[in-house]
Amino acid sequence: MGNGGNFEIPQDVLAVLPSDPYEQLDLARRITAMAVAERLSKLEGETGKLRAKLAEKDLIITDLNDRVIDAETTLQETTARLSSALDEQAKLTNERNLLVNTVKKLNRDVAKLETFKRTLMQSLQEDDDGGHKSSEYGGHASVAALVASEAKKTPNSDSWMNNRGHMWNEDNDSENLSQGGAPAPADLGVPAAGSPERPPPQESSKVPLPLSLPSSRSTTAPNSPPNVNSTPGRTPRVDGKEFFRQARNRLSYEQFSAFLANIKELNAHRQTREETLRKADKTFGPDNKDLYIAFDGLLSRHLSS
């Protein structure tokens, strides 16, 4: 083999090479093919490893994507629950405010009722301990004194008829009963200031309101005999104290307060007797016509004096 090239090949390698140039080319081709194949095999192995790593990364990415989706779903659910909780909190706050206002209103109503109760109890106590003259008259009070106590002793209701003079005559102390046996409305008052005290009337002259009224507070037993000495044709009187007791028992707080306010207007001369009766009829209603008749009798008796 001649030196046909500039390649420097070790002598030991040249010693084993064939002398024929074609055979040397064929050997070189086979050596090159073996080198390329070995290199390709190594590259394919590396490629497989890289692909395996890539697959692992893809799995990790997929898992992370799933976790992100779950986190977003949880976030949406949490946001929805938070919004619902905020709405519920707003509703509860409004309900709490309403309840607080209701409690305050109820407390005010209770305070008013307690004041009204104390006033009524004080009024009844004053009626029971009102003095020697009231006890002599069998517990009957004038309309003026009753209105004054029931209306919490306001300046407009200190007395119905302080300037009306004598309430009735001495010979009107007896009571009339209706022909049907039921006691008719009765009227009692006290004499004007300076009048001599009269002897207490007989127990049989205390006639309560008609039998349609509750009898628990009546001052006369239902079976009391009629007063045989009563003169026919006289205007029946009304027991003022019993009338107000029945009105308190049968009317609501608002109705009774309106009734007392109506009397205040009459005492202050801001309305006439007819207007007072019309308002009283509206306050009493159709179920308490006997109260209206009794009140009409009271006004007729005292305003005509």
Characteristics of this structure?
single chain, about 300 residues, mainly alpha, 2 domains, 8 helices, about 60% helix, about 0% strand, At4g15545-like C-terminal domain-containing protein, At4g15545-like, coiled coil
Describe it for me?
It comes from Marchantia polymorpha (Common liverwort). Keywords: Coiled coil. Helix 6 runs antiparallel to helix 7 and helix 7 runs antiparallel to helix 8. The protein has two domains: 96 residues; 174 residues, no CATH class. The chain has eight helices and no strands. The chain is rod-shaped and about 170 Å long. Helices cover 59% and strands 0% of the residues. It is mainly α.
* Helical residue percent band: 55-70%
Give me the Rg, rounded: 57 Å
The 3D shape can be described as rod-shaped
> What is the number of beta strands?
0
* Strand/helix succession: HHHHHHHH
Strand content: under 5%
Biggest sheet, open or closed, and with what strands and sense? none
**Sequence stretches where pLDDT stays below 50 over 5 or more residues:** 131-145, 152-208, 210-235
- Number of self-contained structural domains: 2
Q: What is the CA-CA span between the terminal residues?
A: 170 Å
On the 0-100 scale, what is the average pLDDT?
A: 71
- What's the assembly state of these chains? single chain
Q: How many helices in DSSP terms?
A: 8
